[in-house]
Amino acid sequence: MTGELVFTKKIMTTLSNLYKAFNVEYHSKNRNRYFSNKAQKDGFDEISKLYGEIAKIQEDHCQMLLTMIKSFWEEKPSLDMKMDNEQQTDFGSVCNNLKASIASQMYEYSIMYPAFIKEAELEHYYAEAGKLQTFQIEEVLIRQRQEKIVQLLSEGNVCDRTPEKFWACKNCGSLQCCTINPAACSSCSSVSEFIELTVAI
C-alpha cells in the first residue's frame, strides 16, 4: 500500500476539498502577484505593496494546504498535483483587477471555506476543519487590504464604480467576468453550475 491513497468516501471527500482549496488559493496568489506588478508599472506603488501582502497570505495558505494534503498519504511520496489551466489574470484596468480580487475573496470567505469546514467536521476531520477555519478568518486580513486599495483609488479619483459581474466555477473556483452565466469554465472546461458574484466599489 506504499504511496497509495486509502480510498474511503470520507478521505476522498475531504481530500478533494483540500485539492480544490489549494487550486483556488494558488490561482488567487498568482492573480494578486500580477495585480501587484501591474499596479507598480502604472505608478500605484502603495497599491502594489498591498497586493503583494495579499499574495503572501495566499502563498502561506498554499503551503499549509499542501502539508495537509500530504498527511493523507501513508509514506508521503512526492505529489503529482493536477492543476487546472491558467486562469484569467488581467481584467483590463486597476479598478477591474481590484473587483476581481474582491470577488475571489468573497467566494473563498463566504462560500468555499464554510462548505469545506462543514464537510470536514461531518467526516470527523476536526484538525483539518480547524485549519480551514483559520484560513477563512485570515480572509478578513485580505479584505482589510482590499478596502485600503479602494480608499487609495477613490482618493486619486481613478475608481470606476460601475458594478462588475463575476462568475465562480463551482468545480474549480475560476473567475470569469461576463454579463451572463458562462456556458463552460474557461479554466477546467466544466459545464457545472456557476456562482454569481457582483462587485461594486
TrEMBL record:
Its cofactor is Fe(3+). It comes from the Eukaryota. InterPro entries: Ferritin-like, Ferritin-like_diiron, Ferritin-like_SF, Rr_diiron-bd_dom, Rubrerythrin. Transmembrane segments: none annotated. One of its GO terms (molecular function) is oxidoreductase activity. Coiled coil: none annotated. Residues 8-157 form the Ferritin-like diiron domain. This is Ferritin-like diiron domain-containing protein. It comes from Entamoeba invadens IP1.
